[in-house]
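Researcher: Here's a chain I'd like modeled. Treat it as a single chain, no partners, no ligands.
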Amino acid sequence: MPDDVSKPSSTMADKARGLYDVHGEKLRYLLVGVWNTAFSYGLFLVGYRLLASPLEAATRLDPKIVAVIIQCASWVFAVVQSTVTMKYIAFRSKGSLGKQIARAYVIYLPAQGLSMVILWVAMLVLTPGLGSRLAAMVGQLFAVFVTTIFSYFGHKYFTFHVPLEVGEVVREELIDPGPN
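Model: Modeled as a single isolated chain. Structure tokens:
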């Protein structure tokens, strides 16, 4: 009888392992993405809190421009941190970290352009009701979430895609046999 009791939990464990084998990378990407999003957003908030008023006063720039400048500055630092966590935790990638950071900038550049547009539009729309400070915070948060899916595919198929070494064999499950 004790053998029968252990079989269902073993079966459940096997199913869980099977699911993780198929979807583990996506789960790790989401978990790392939560951290990277929090880090990136926190970096923006700290930079915005410390630098927005002095920059506006010193330059007389529009608050929307100041928000985008701070967003770009925080983005430069966030990309490096994000790439490191994705390389080692989400994608468990081989290859040169330096090259992968450079590739990540290629993926994140269009995402950053989209993010800047979202921030600008959010500030245009939300500033009358919320004020420029809160509008910037809400707009940046929305921009980070919008660019996450785009970034996943770019990183999966470009940033962390490492070509096969000479003599290396493609994993069998990656080969599509096509119709018979």
